[in-house]
User: Fold this.
Amino acid sequence: MNAVLIFISAAVINNFVLAYFLGICPFLGVSKKVETSINMGLATTFVMTLTAVITWLINEYILIKFNLPFLQYVTFIIAIASLVQLVEMFIRKSSPSLYRSLGIFLPLITTNCAILGLALFMALREYTFIETVAFGVGGGIGFTIAMVLMGGIREELEYADIPPALKGAPMTLLVAGMLALAFMGFAGMLSV
Amino acid sequence: MAANKKSLSAEFVKGLWVENPILKLLLGMCPALAVSNSATNGLAMGLATAFVLVASNALVSLVRRLVPAQVRIPTYIMIIAGFVTLADLFLQAQLPVISKALGPYVALIVCNCVILGRSEFFASKHSLLPSIADGFGMGMGFTIVLLVLGSIREVLGSGAIFGYVFMGEEVFVPWVVMVLPAGAFLTLGLLMGILNYITRPKGDSA
Assistant:
């Protein structure tokens, strides 16, 4: 039950992008079109889930066991970087069409702070294995939702009459602010 | 030597405005938005980031000839993660209150693209002194934006600055939204818009 709550909370209430400010760079950078947003969102969800599993194992069976929590940042970031590399090689071999559609987004995921944030929050809150997986999948889906919403709004914005000073990044930030306001409406849904 | 000195100060100044990491390069947005809910937090985060920037820029520039090109990115990330751990442990030991307020966002300095960006584009190609100047300038530019953002949000969101309440409930009803996530996006968006308007090319009617 707890895992279900964590999943819903990570997906909408405490949305990674709109409530924790994690993964803002891809959120602002590659959300110009709905299609690229979906691809980026799915790739990130995939890596997030794997990261959640791997970093949980590392944290539980290596870092805590040998009393090395100060190495957390270094090991987590290396685990994430090598994981992304591995996923990239695997997808390129097994599914060239998927690899082409993800394109340059895959390597970019390494520097997505949502991934490292996920690993750190998971360690900080001492989730169990199942909870960690729910957190990873939920966080990824929340990220995808935010990306797709943003992509859709920005496609429409192309045709809007925006003051020149606000064009580009400022307008995107204002839209993100309104999205964050809207997502605050989920806050009363359940308490975790 | 004079030319060298001039370029050092130029490397420093460009980070403040022309290549300001947040306002112009749009790098390092996550910490900028996440911890700028008060002036103190913004300042602490900015200084921590500036320290990591200077230290990692210096070290990257020192080892730039020893590191093979293929493994340079992982090496830089390792260096950055090391200094972030240092900064985090220092904050935990010396300033536990601030360390608590910043929470896991201190660790997320590792993912701050400003730092990796400067290592990759500047420090790996320049010698020690320009790299330090560049890191210091970028760090200060980052800190100033965070401080301004944090001050605006604290004043409007809780009628206080650096935790000192100067507008009580009776004269000013705080805009709670400013300290919430939505306020961060809106403030930074408006701030950028205003700066774009002020600095627009002459004759361009905005």
The first strand of chain B starts at residue 160 and ends at 161. Chain B touches chain A at residues 26-27, 29-31, 33-34, 73-74, 77-78, 81-82, 84-85, 88-89, 103-104, 107-108, 110-113, 116, 177, 180-186, 188-190, 192-194, 196-197, 200, 204, 206 (CB under 8 Å). The CA atoms of residues 74 and 81 of chain B lie 10 Å apart.
